[in-house]
Specification:
Order of helices and strands: EHEHEHEHHEHHHEHEHEH
Number of helices: 11
Shape: globular
Number of domains: 1
Distance between the termini: 6 Å
CATH class: Alpha Beta
Bound molecules: 1,3-dihydroxyacetonephosphate
Length: 244
Protein backbone atom coordinates (compact mmCIF):
# COMPACT_ATOMS: atom_id res chain seq x y z
CA UNK A 1 0.00 0.00 0.00
CA UNK A 2 1.47 3.43 -0.88
CA UNK A 3 2.31 5.43 2.24
CA UNK A 4 0.20 8.56 2.68
CA UNK A 5 1.47 12.05 3.33
CA UNK A 6 -1.22 14.36 4.68
CA UNK A 7 -0.54 18.06 5.25
CA UNK A 8 -2.50 19.88 7.95
CA UNK A 9 -1.75 23.52 7.27
CA UNK A 10 -3.74 24.65 10.32
CA UNK A 11 -4.15 28.48 10.49
CA UNK A 12 -1.15 29.16 8.28
CA UNK A 13 -0.28 30.43 4.79
CA UNK A 14 -2.25 32.89 2.66
CA UNK A 15 -4.43 32.27 -0.38
CA UNK A 16 -1.51 32.87 -2.75
CA UNK A 17 1.11 30.86 -0.86
CA UNK A 18 -1.28 27.97 -0.22
CA UNK A 19 -2.28 27.67 -3.87
CA UNK A 20 1.34 28.07 -5.04
CA UNK A 21 2.49 25.29 -2.71
CA UNK A 22 -0.42 23.05 -3.74
CA UNK A 23 0.17 23.75 -7.44
CA UNK A 24 3.83 22.80 -7.18
CA UNK A 25 3.01 19.53 -5.41
CA UNK A 26 0.40 18.77 -8.05
CA UNK A 27 2.69 19.57 -10.99
CA UNK A 28 5.36 17.31 -9.49
CA UNK A 29 2.95 14.40 -9.59
CA UNK A 30 2.81 14.08 -5.82
CA UNK A 31 -0.24 12.45 -4.25
CA UNK A 32 -0.48 14.40 -0.98
CA UNK A 33 -3.66 14.96 1.02
CA UNK A 34 -3.95 18.70 1.64
CA UNK A 35 -5.94 20.29 4.49
CA UNK A 36 -5.82 24.07 4.01
CA UNK A 37 -7.74 26.65 6.05
CA UNK A 38 -11.37 27.23 4.97
CA UNK A 39 -10.73 30.45 3.00
CA UNK A 40 -8.06 28.67 0.94
CA UNK A 41 -10.03 25.55 0.02
CA UNK A 42 -11.32 26.95 -3.24
CA UNK A 43 -7.93 28.19 -4.48
CA UNK A 44 -6.11 25.02 -3.39
CA UNK A 45 -8.83 22.91 -5.00
CA UNK A 46 -8.31 24.77 -8.28
CA UNK A 47 -4.52 24.39 -8.02
CA UNK A 48 -4.68 20.60 -7.64
CA UNK A 49 -7.50 19.95 -10.11
CA UNK A 50 -6.75 16.92 -12.26
CA UNK A 51 -3.71 15.96 -10.14
CA UNK A 52 -3.14 13.11 -7.71
CA UNK A 53 -3.41 15.40 -4.66
CA UNK A 54 -6.61 15.34 -2.64
CA UNK A 55 -8.43 18.12 -0.82
CA UNK A 56 -9.70 18.07 2.75
CA UNK A 57 -11.00 20.55 5.33
CA UNK A 58 -9.75 20.95 8.89
CA UNK A 59 -13.15 20.99 10.56
CA UNK A 60 -16.87 20.61 9.90
CA UNK A 61 -20.05 21.67 11.66
CA UNK A 62 -22.10 19.00 13.42
CA UNK A 63 -25.20 20.81 12.12
CA UNK A 64 -26.86 20.51 8.74
CA UNK A 65 -27.70 24.14 7.93
CA UNK A 66 -29.02 27.18 9.71
CA UNK A 67 -28.21 29.80 12.32
CA UNK A 68 -24.72 28.66 13.35
CA UNK A 69 -22.56 31.72 12.88
CA UNK A 70 -19.03 30.87 11.85
CA UNK A 71 -19.73 27.21 11.15
CA UNK A 72 -19.12 25.51 7.81
CA UNK A 73 -21.36 22.58 6.95
CA UNK A 74 -20.42 19.23 5.46
CA UNK A 75 -22.68 19.95 2.47
CA UNK A 76 -20.82 23.22 1.84
CA UNK A 77 -17.50 21.40 1.89
CA UNK A 78 -18.71 18.68 -0.45
CA UNK A 79 -20.15 21.36 -2.73
CA UNK A 80 -16.70 22.96 -2.87
CA UNK A 81 -15.07 19.75 -4.03
CA UNK A 82 -13.66 18.68 -0.67
CA UNK A 83 -13.43 14.92 -0.25
CA UNK A 84 -12.14 14.64 3.30
CA UNK A 85 -12.30 16.35 6.67
CA UNK A 86 -10.31 16.15 9.91
CA UNK A 87 -12.42 15.23 12.93
CA UNK A 88 -11.16 14.93 16.50
CA UNK A 89 -7.89 16.83 16.14
CA UNK A 90 -6.52 17.52 19.62
CA UNK A 91 -6.43 21.26 18.89
CA UNK A 92 -10.25 21.06 18.52
CA UNK A 93 -10.80 18.59 21.37
CA UNK A 94 -8.72 20.67 23.80
CA UNK A 95 -8.89 24.23 22.50
CA UNK A 96 -12.63 24.15 21.81
CA UNK A 97 -13.81 21.53 24.30
CA UNK A 98 -15.12 19.23 21.59
CA UNK A 99 -16.50 16.21 23.41
CA UNK A 100 -17.43 12.76 22.15
CA UNK A 101 -21.06 13.73 21.41
CA UNK A 102 -19.97 16.64 19.23
CA UNK A 103 -17.35 14.56 17.43
CA UNK A 104 -19.89 11.82 16.77
CA UNK A 105 -22.29 14.38 15.27
CA UNK A 106 -19.49 15.71 13.07
CA UNK A 107 -18.54 12.23 11.90
CA UNK A 108 -22.17 11.47 11.02
CA UNK A 109 -22.71 14.78 9.24
CA UNK A 110 -19.50 14.38 7.25
CA UNK A 111 -20.25 10.80 6.23
CA UNK A 112 -23.81 11.65 5.24
CA UNK A 113 -22.56 14.45 2.98
CA UNK A 114 -20.21 12.01 1.27
CA UNK A 115 -17.05 13.30 2.94
CA UNK A 116 -14.42 10.90 4.23
CA UNK A 117 -13.46 11.78 7.81
CA UNK A 118 -9.85 11.49 8.96
CA UNK A 119 -10.37 10.72 12.64
CA UNK A 120 -7.60 11.86 15.00
CA UNK A 121 -6.82 10.28 18.36
CA UNK A 122 -4.03 10.66 20.90
CA UNK A 123 -3.29 11.01 24.58
CA UNK A 124 -2.07 13.99 26.60
CA UNK A 125 1.25 13.90 28.43
CA UNK A 126 -0.62 13.60 31.75
CA UNK A 127 -2.50 10.51 30.51
CA UNK A 128 0.72 8.94 29.23
CA UNK A 129 2.52 9.64 32.51
CA UNK A 130 -0.42 8.07 34.36
CA UNK A 131 -0.02 4.91 32.27
CA UNK A 132 -3.34 5.61 30.54
CA UNK A 133 -2.20 6.26 26.97
CA UNK A 134 -3.67 3.01 25.58
CA UNK A 135 -6.93 3.42 27.51
CA UNK A 136 -7.33 6.94 26.16
CA UNK A 137 -6.87 5.92 22.55
CA UNK A 138 -9.12 2.88 22.96
CA UNK A 139 -11.86 5.11 24.44
CA UNK A 140 -11.50 7.64 21.64
CA UNK A 141 -11.76 4.91 18.99
CA UNK A 142 -14.83 3.44 20.70
CA UNK A 143 -16.75 6.42 19.33
CA UNK A 144 -16.53 4.85 15.89
CA UNK A 145 -18.62 1.90 17.08
CA UNK A 146 -21.56 4.30 17.48
CA UNK A 147 -21.61 5.05 13.76
CA UNK A 148 -23.67 2.96 11.38
CA UNK A 149 -21.44 0.54 9.45
CA UNK A 150 -22.00 2.47 6.24
CA UNK A 151 -20.99 5.77 7.91
CA UNK A 152 -17.97 4.16 9.51
CA UNK A 153 -16.89 2.74 6.18
CA UNK A 154 -16.47 6.26 4.83
CA UNK A 155 -13.49 6.93 7.11
CA UNK A 156 -10.39 7.65 4.98
CA UNK A 157 -7.89 7.10 7.79
CA UNK A 158 -7.20 7.31 11.50
CA UNK A 159 -4.32 9.43 12.76
CA UNK A 160 -2.51 8.72 16.01
CA UNK A 161 -1.20 12.06 17.23
CA UNK A 162 0.09 12.10 20.80
CA UNK A 163 -0.82 15.57 22.05
CA UNK A 164 2.57 16.08 23.65
CA UNK A 165 4.32 15.51 20.31
CA UNK A 166 2.29 18.07 18.35
CA UNK A 167 4.21 21.23 17.55
CA UNK A 168 6.77 20.51 20.24
CA UNK A 169 9.63 19.19 18.14
CA UNK A 170 9.52 16.03 20.24
CA UNK A 171 8.24 13.16 18.15
CA UNK A 172 7.17 9.95 19.86
CA UNK A 173 9.70 7.12 19.82
CA UNK A 174 9.41 3.82 17.98
CA UNK A 175 8.75 2.12 21.34
CA UNK A 176 5.78 4.43 21.90
CA UNK A 177 4.40 4.47 18.37
CA UNK A 178 4.58 0.79 17.36
CA UNK A 179 2.42 -0.62 20.20
CA UNK A 180 -0.10 2.20 19.78
CA UNK A 181 -0.45 1.60 16.05
CA UNK A 182 -0.85 -2.12 16.74
CA UNK A 183 -3.64 -1.26 19.19
CA UNK A 184 -5.34 1.05 16.70
CA UNK A 185 -5.10 -1.64 14.01
CA UNK A 186 -6.66 -4.23 16.33
CA UNK A 187 -9.51 -1.86 17.26
CA UNK A 188 -10.15 -0.95 13.63
CA UNK A 189 -10.20 -4.62 12.68
CA UNK A 190 -12.93 -5.20 15.28
CA UNK A 191 -14.93 -2.37 13.71
CA UNK A 192 -14.63 -3.82 10.22
CA UNK A 193 -12.15 -1.15 9.16
CA UNK A 194 -9.26 -3.38 8.19
CA UNK A 195 -8.37 -1.36 5.10
CA UNK A 196 -8.23 2.09 6.66
CA UNK A 197 -4.67 3.45 6.87
CA UNK A 198 -3.26 4.58 10.23
CA UNK A 199 -1.18 7.76 10.10
CA UNK A 200 1.26 9.04 12.71
CA UNK A 201 1.35 12.75 13.49
CA UNK A 202 3.44 14.89 15.83
CA UNK A 203 6.64 16.78 14.95
CA UNK A 204 7.19 14.90 11.70
CA UNK A 205 10.03 16.42 9.68
CA UNK A 206 12.29 15.34 6.81
CA UNK A 207 14.88 14.11 9.34
CA UNK A 208 12.58 11.60 11.06
CA UNK A 209 10.10 10.70 8.30
CA UNK A 210 11.89 7.60 7.00
CA UNK A 211 12.37 6.17 10.49
CA UNK A 212 8.70 6.73 11.37
CA UNK A 213 7.47 5.27 8.07
CA UNK A 214 9.51 2.11 8.65
CA UNK A 215 7.47 1.22 11.75
CA UNK A 216 4.85 -1.52 11.53
CA UNK A 217 1.33 -0.20 10.93
CA UNK A 218 2.54 3.33 10.20
CA UNK A 219 0.75 3.68 6.89
CA UNK A 220 1.49 7.36 6.48
CA UNK A 221 2.13 10.68 8.21
CA UNK A 222 -0.02 13.65 9.19
CA UNK A 223 2.28 16.65 9.09
CA UNK A 224 1.75 20.12 10.56
CA UNK A 225 4.69 22.52 10.70
CA UNK A 226 6.81 20.33 8.43
CA UNK A 227 4.27 20.66 5.62
CA UNK A 228 4.29 24.43 5.20
CA UNK A 229 7.27 24.68 2.87
CA UNK A 230 7.73 22.84 -0.38
CA UNK A 231 11.22 21.45 0.27
CA UNK A 232 10.26 20.00 3.63
CA UNK A 233 6.99 18.44 2.46
CA UNK A 234 8.61 17.12 -0.73
CA UNK A 235 11.40 15.48 1.32
CA UNK A 236 8.80 13.82 3.57
CA UNK A 237 6.87 12.70 0.49
CA UNK A 238 10.07 11.30 -1.04
CA UNK A 239 10.63 9.30 2.17
CA UNK A 240 7.06 7.99 1.88
CA UNK A 241 7.63 6.95 -1.72
CA UNK A 242 10.82 5.08 -0.77
CA UNK A 243 9.02 3.33 2.09
CA UNK A 244 6.02 2.27 -0.04
P1 LIG B 1 3.18 19.21 13.89
O1 LIG B 1 3.68 18.39 12.74
O2 LIG B 1 3.39 20.68 13.69
O3 LIG B 1 3.68 18.70 15.20
O4 LIG B 1 1.58 19.04 13.91
C1 LIG B 1 1.04 17.76 13.85
C2 LIG B 1 -0.42 17.88 13.67
O5 LIG B 1 -1.13 18.33 14.54
C3 LIG B 1 -0.99 17.44 12.40
O6 LIG B 1 -2.38 17.36 12.46
Amino acid sequence: MPKIVAANWKMNLRRGSASALAGRLARDGRACWLFPAFPHLDAVGAAIKGSQCKLGAQDVSPELDGAFTGDVSAEMLADLGCGMVLVGHSERRQGYGEDAARLLAKLRRAAQAGLAPLFCVGETLARRKAGKAEDTVREQLALLSKLAAVERGRLCAVAYEPVWAIGTGVNATAAEIAPMHALVRAELDKLGLAKQPILYGGSVKPENAAELLALAEVNGLLVGGGSLEYDSLAAIDDAAKSAS
